[in-house]
Design a protein that fits this description.
Helices cover 36% and strands 18% of the residues. The chain has helices spanning 4-27, 32-39, 43-51, 60-73, 78-83, 95-100, 112-134; strands at residues 173-179, 183-189, 192-199, 204-209, 213-217, 223-227, 233-234, 242-246. Strands 4-1-6-7 form a four-stranded antiparallel sheet, with no helix packed on it. Strand 6 and strand 7 (233-234) form a beta hairpin. GO terms for molecular function: DNA binding.
């Protein structure tokens, strides 16, 4: 646990860093909404960083990552500025602390693969309805009413060709994440925010996209990533923040 003196030092450094970020943002004519859309960080947390409100932010290791992403969005040296924020070397959040931390919610969006599934179901339904309507509901209505031909003279109509189901298009980009430890994570699929929050140990997340998948995790050593069916590998060292950008092979 950090001492009161260390927490005061963190608050002071955060206030200095936040003031510098706010000045740079205002000089560039950018709003907090612009920064939130680019970094996937909620506006209330960006406001807390600018105001130096450490008590309104998550664990310091995540704050350090937020500072770097905020600075990078302003074309500043994010790594250098984030290094000014002190993080206790003894910090090692327990599973209870991680689970108690409220998830960082983003706008609810459906994954791309669900939309592809919806399209396939709709196409299959339309194809089945077309086949049903194309069949003659009452073949006897077309037979002559005066005389009935012999069974041998009646030519059986050829059976309708079955409509093949539409092929399921595989997503060009796929990332499979295996969480061996609890970790904060944020996913962006084809430029749209998909998830941001805490993922528990033992969970597996499969992400699919058409052009690009971006992944940011707060405990890189506890997360394995497999990109486009390649062998899974840790995203980084334990307790560090790591980013991954996957594109079609």
């Amino acid at each position: 646990m950090s001492s009161p003196e260390f927490e005061q030092e963190q608050s002071r450094k955060l206030a200095d860093i936040g003031a510098e970020l706010r000045r740079a943002r205002e000089q560039q004519g950018k709003s907090l909404e612009d920064i939130a859309a680019k970094t996937l960080i909620q506006q209330r947390m960006l406001k807390a960083i600018e105001a130096g409100k450490l008590e309104q932010l998550p664990e310091p290791v995540y704050v350090k990552g937020f500072i770097r992403r905020y600075a990078d969005a302003l074309a500043l040296n994010g790594t250098k500025l984030a290094d000014l924020f002190p993080v206790s070397a003894a910090f090692a959040p327990s599973k209870e602390q991680l689970k108690a931390q409220p998830p960082i919610a983003v706008d609810s969006l459906r994954p791309v693969h669900l939309w592809l599934l919806y399209v396939v179901v709709i196409i299959a339904a339309v194809s089945g309805l077309s086949y049903y309507l194309s069949r003659d509901p009452n073949p006897s209505d077309s037979a002559p009413s005066v005389s009935t031909p012999e069974p041998s003279e009646v030519e059986a109509p050829p059976p309708p060709e079955p409509t093949p189901p539409p092929p399921v298009q595989e997503a060009p980009v796929e990332v499979v994440l295996t969480f061996n430890e609890d970790s904060w994570a944020a996913f962006t699929l084809d430029g749209r925010a998909d998830f941001e929050g805490i993922v528990s140990a033992g969970e597996t997340r499969t992400l699919t996209g058409q052009t690009q998948i971006e992944v940011v995790v707060g405990n890189a050593g506890g997360v394995l990533a497999a990109v486009n069916n390649q062998a899974a590998a840790p995203m980084g060292s334990a307790g560090t923040i790591a980013e991954l950008v996957a594109t079609p092979p």
